[in-house]
Design brief:
The chain has 159 residues and is mainly alpha-helical. It contains 7 helices and no strands. Helix 1 packs across helix 2 (38-54). The longest helix is centred in the middle third of the chain and has 24 residues, at 67-90.
Length: 159
């Protein structure tokens, strides 16, 4: 979907996936680590997902236009979830980090279920999720994702 963009501003997109999954996973891991609590990590990481969607960002919208884009999105998702598994083993005494990494992607997993299986009762969720997005073209939207992800990764590297 296209957004209402001009040279000076962009309006939120009506719906679609969020910023790439790997940033959501890294940010969720950092938020989970910051909570210091496995129980608090999941809701905090889910909240960080929606907060991340408010930041100007680029993402491919479903249905994707090419097989290459499908492969890219699937690869990004696999990396994001593999990161959660890696963090589980890398920080065995800090489960909140891996829980945060996984929970940071849960809102898009739900959206993926809505799109792939056409689950009607998730339409309201799709609308809610879509209203939070501030999508911009790739040349503008990739940088905020990279910057926020780098800050979150930097925090994780201090642990």
């Amino acid at each position: 979907m296209t957004t209402g963009c001009s040279r000076t501003s962009c309006s939120p997109a009506p719906h679609g996936p969020t910023l790439l999954e790997t940033p959501h996973s890294v940010i969720g891991a950092a938020v989970g680590a910051a909570t210091g609590n496995p129980v608090a990590a999941a809701p905090a990481a889910i909240a960080s997902h929606f907060a991340g969607d408010v930041v100007p960002h680029w993402n491919p919208n479903f249905p994707f236009r090419s097989r290459a884009l499908y492969a890219f999105v699937i690869g990004d998702f696999v990396i994001a979830e593999a990161l959660a598994v890696f963090l589980w083993f890398a920080f065995p005494d800090r489960p909140e980090i891996a829980i945060g990494a996984f929970a940071g992607t849960v809102p898009d997993i739900i959206l993926g279920v809505r799109f792939l299986f056409r689950v009607r009762w998730l339409r309201g969720y799709e609308r809610f999720h879509g209203k939070l997005h501030w999508e911009v073209p790739l040349r503008y939207g990739l940088w905020p994702q990279l910057a926020i992800t780098a800050v979150a990764a930097g925090y994780l590297l201090t642990l």
